[in-house]
TrEMBL record, chain A:
Residues covered by the LUD domain: 41-215
Species of provenance: Marinobacter zhanjiangensis
Domain of life (superkingdom): Bacteria
InterPro entries given in the database record: FTHF_cligase-like_sf, LUD_dom, NagB/RpiA_transferase-like
Residues covered by region (Disordered): 1-22
Name under which the protein is recorded: LUD domain-containing protein
Pfam family, one: LUD_dom
UniProtKB/TrEMBL annotation, chain B:
Protein name as it appears in the record: Iron-sulfur cluster-binding protein
Pfam families: Fer4_8, LUD_dom, LutB_C
Protein species of origin: Marinobacter zhanjiangensis
Domain 4Fe-4S ferredoxin-type: 308-337
Gene3D superfamilies per record: Alpha-helical ferredoxin, NagB/RpiA/CoA transferase-like
PANTHER family reported in the protein's UniProt record: LACTATE UTILIZATION PROTEIN B
Keywords for the protein's UniProt record, in alphabetical order: 4Fe-4S, Electron transport, Iron, Iron-sulfur, Metal-binding, Repeat, Transport
SUPFAM superfamilies the record matches: alpha-helical ferredoxin, NagB/RpiA/CoA transferase-like
Length: 216, 477
């Protein structure tokens, strides 16, 4: 008999009593219906203590904010997905921006370059979670997974209108149970570790900095 | 059953000498004390404003429901994962799981493996096995990386290198990798980042654990802060996830409840930096991600624990480590004293199933039964009750229950058994009892003042001059 069948058979032919199935009461996880303003404030108060940097922008203003932040950091090359947005807005902008590298080739063709020469990655988000200060990332062929992981700075665009109270709210509203992408992520700050004597250090394997541009 | 291979060097039975040595080492005590104090404080703060009792009840009910439907959920998970393009393997024990992983590596002609944190792979002694087959396995979680550099095993399930302080780590990195000596944690971290980046790029296979496996969508969830888990599961062309069969939950909503409890209980974080949900290999037009994803579902004793109405609660565990952070024994002796893959309270109730009560005979007794572990456990595992059950089983075994734990009765001693038999008989026979207590009162002068460890910090209790029966009689008359 295969290991699979042996394991399943052992579990099915369990010797003891009927196992308990107590009711699952999720009330303890519920949060009040926060207004957008409340959600923004909570998002900020959850993300800032873990070193996420948040900037509020109005409409297309975000490019101006981005331009300032990137030139302060001397970013010379920024990775962007190949989707229509935000690429079109960046290209149409007259702001001073770093060289834009479009992620449109399989990573195998340019891995060294990606790991060694890219200073920042810009991604969209599929919303955020106020309670925990998290961004929902939903990588696709147009916005591949490594954009938010390999470059030392990750810039994420978040629409204020897409801020949810809790993870459960987001999952229900976006019907995650109907199908998940190959990879989905919650990102709540820059990469960090406390493995050396409980002392926090940022930028271990992922980005050292996370910048969130909240577009209202 | 997969015997502990670490026990080539570490004998689990030698708990007492190791504990004594750790207690006499001020550095170890200092390192653990300060780390555990920090973690306890952070956990308290993270749950402020929550109804923690209600949350723990929810956590327990989520896990209990999942366990009640375990075989169905595993089949559902397998079907969803397969539909998503993930290959599913089943392993009865650690050795079989190691073989499956090695075979996948061989089929890809893989020589270098990069690993994310996985306690199940520690349980399987996977690194050892891969090495024997000429495959290089490098740990990428910073704590695990340091432990591997030192040739040690993790001393904590969440913070593997917690037994070392910055100075010791600086020395270690200097010796092994040529890093400049420094007490600047940022510098040490940056050096490790540099050393590991190359490895990520060149690894043939990435191996990770799994925190939760969601049956309804066929999703593997990983919790982490560093990003090494994302690297491991995204950069190499092949990803292998190894997980215990108990990690499956029915729905995303169940997962969200456990996630809320896990990170707050473990490190006092509302959420970790990354919550990585993997539901398939690179697909269609995608430009990155592994072309192959495998899952190895590992039993290794779990279906045995599953048979027992009490011990099954052990399988609720979500590996948060809160029980060790709050354990007065763990905090003092540290993780290595136990000599087991999982140290602390969870280790004491889990390891006897993996290695048997013969080898693990001291584990259930390495506790003061203060109850702290049971009080903090986010899924309400009655750890102290299970310790008592295992203690009973280690001396009595089958006579109490049809036992599912190997090596039950291993600690039974004829002298102790006889002493308790006599005690039982005397208490059931009033005449003998009176004779015995009267004799004890008369001979009280002969009672020694020193009673070994008991009188090291206390004075010995004195037998009364007159027995209770006699005193009651005096009062009545
Ligand atoms: S037994 Fe409970 S407290 Fe201990 S690691 Fe498991 S879930 Fe956490």
């Amino acid at each position: 008999m295969s290991a699979r069948d042996t394991i399943l058979q052992r579990l099915r032919n369990r010797t003891g009593d009927q196992l308990p199935t107590p009711e699952r009461d999720f009330t303890a996880m519920e949060r009040p219906d926060w207004s957008t303003g409340d959600k923004l404030a909570r998002f900020r108060s959850a993300m800032e203590p873990v070193h996420g940097e948040i900037h509020n922008c109005r409409g297309g203003d975000w490019v101006a904010t981005l331009s300032g932040l990137l030139s302060d950091r001397r970013v010379s090359r920024m990775l962007v997905g190949s989707g229509a947005e935000p690429l079109a807005t960046l290209r149409a902008s007259t702001q001073e921006l770093p060289d834009i590298l479009v992620y449109d080739e399989p990573v195998e063709n340019w891995q060294q370059h990606l790991f060694n020469d890219v200073d920042a990655g810009l991604t969209t988000t599929r919303g955020g979670i106020a309670e925990t200060g998290s961004l929902i990332l939903w990588p696709t062929a147009e916005e591949p997974r490594l954009t938010s992981l390999v470059p030392p700075i990750h810039v994420a665009l978040l629409k204020a209108s897409e801020l949810f109270g809790t993870l459960r709210e987001a999952m229900a509203a976006q019907q995650w149970s109907h199908g998940m992408p190959t990879n989905a992520l919650l990102v709540s700050g820059p990469s960090k570790t406390a493995d050396i004597e409980q002392t926090l250090a940022y930028g271990v394997h992922g980005p050292r900095e996370l910048i969130v541009l909240v577009v209202e | 059953m997969n015997e502990q291979k670490a026990s080539d060097t570490v004998d689990v039975r030698e708990f007492h000498p190791r504990a004594r040595a750790a207690l006499a080492d001020p550095q170890i005590r200092q390192n653990f004390r300060s780390a555990m104090d920090g973690l306890m404080g952070k956990r308290r703060t993270a749950f402020e404003g929550w109804d923690l009792e209600a949350l723990r009840t929810l956590g327990a009910s989520v896990r209990q429901n999942a366990l009640a439907h375990l075989p169905d959920l595993l089949e559902q998970l397998e079907a969803r994962l397969t539909a998503n393009g993930i290959r599913v393997h089943w392993a009865l024990d650690g050795d079989e799981a190691c073989r499956i992983v090695t075979d996948i590596c061989r089929a890809r002609d893989a020589h270098s493996v990069i690993k994310g944190k996985s306690m199940v792979s520690e349980e399987m002694h996977l690194n050892h096995h891969l090495e024997q087959h000429g495959i290089d396995a490098l740990e990428s979680d910073l704590g695990e990386y340091l432990v591997q550099l030192a040739g040690e095993t993790p001393s904590h399930i969440i913070m593997p290198a917690i037994h070392k302080n910055t100075g010791e780590i600086s020395e270690l990195m200097h010796d092994r990798t040529g890093t400049e000596r420094s007490t600047d944690v940022e510098y040490l971290t940056a050096s490790a980042r540099q050393q590991l980046r190359e490895k990520f790029m060149n690894a043939d296979v990435g191996i990770s654990g799994v925190n939760f496996a969601v049956a309804e969508t066929g999703t593997l969830c990983l919790v982490e802060n560093e990003g090494n888990g994302r690297m491991t599961t995204t950069v190499p062309p092949c990803h292998i996830a190894v997980t215990g069969i108990e990690k499956v939950v029915p729905t995303l909503a169940d997962m969200s409840a456990l996630l809320a409890l896990l990170t707050r209980s473990a490190t006092g974080q509302h959420i970790t930096t990354y919550f990585n949900m993997i539901s398939g290999p690179r697909r269609g037009e995608e430009l990155d991600g592994p072309e192959e994803v495998h899952v190895v579902l590992v039993d290794n004793g779990r279906s045995g624990i599953y048979q027992d109405d009490e011990l099954i609660d052990t399988l609720r565990c979500i590996r948060c480590g809160a029980c060790m952070n709050h354990c007065p024994v763990y905090t003092r002796v540290g993780g290595h004293a136990y000599g087991t893959t999982y140290p602390g309270p969870i280790g004491k109730i889990l390891m006897p199933h993996l290695i048997g009560l013969d080898e693990g005979r001291h584990l259930p007794s390495a506790s003061s039964l203060c109850g702290a572990c049971g009080e903090v456990c986010p899924v309400k595992i009655p750890i102290p009750d299970l310790l008592v059950r295992l203690r009973r089983e280690s001396v009595d075994g089958d006579r109490l229950h049809p036992s599912v734990v190997r090596g039950h009765g291993a600690k039974r001693s004829t002298a102790e058994a006889l002493a308790w038999k006599t005690w039982q008989w005397v208490h059931a026979h009033p005449a003998a009892y009176r004779l015995g207590t009267a004799a004890a009162s008369h001979l009280r002068a002969l009672q020694p003042d020193r009673l070994g460890a008991w009188t090291q910090y206390r004075s010995a209790p004195k037998l009364a001059a007159r027995t209770l029966h006699q005193q009651v009689k005096d009062r009545r008359s």
